[in-house]
What does this fold into?
Amino acid sequence: MLLEACLGGEVWTILRERTCFDDNAASFITACVIEALEYLHTRGIVFRDLKPENLLLDHRGYVKLVDFGFSKHLGHSGCKTWTFCGTPEYVAPEIIKNRGHDRAVDYWALGILMHELLTGM
It folds into this structure.
């Protein structure tokens, strides 16, 4: 897989330096992530490892998803997977309970990410 140079740095590093992002910056980062997830989901791919460490900024400040090691092609509607994977702080309850999961786990992780961007915790 080839990725363009992301010279803006890692969101995680910037978050640690700033402690937290203001509402506008957090909203922009979230919007970029939603666009990326929409792109993946319309192609039947679940990302499953959303966290600041996997978000890089390009030279214009737009967020790029990286590290597709836990991603999986599920196809469309109704397909689930049962693989236990992800970063513990971001793992959705259905993964922990091993009840099968779909792209909704990315939205769970998005909520955790938004909280972390706004509070630094």
Observations:
- The chain has a mean pLDDT of 93.
- The first helix runs from residue 11 to 18.
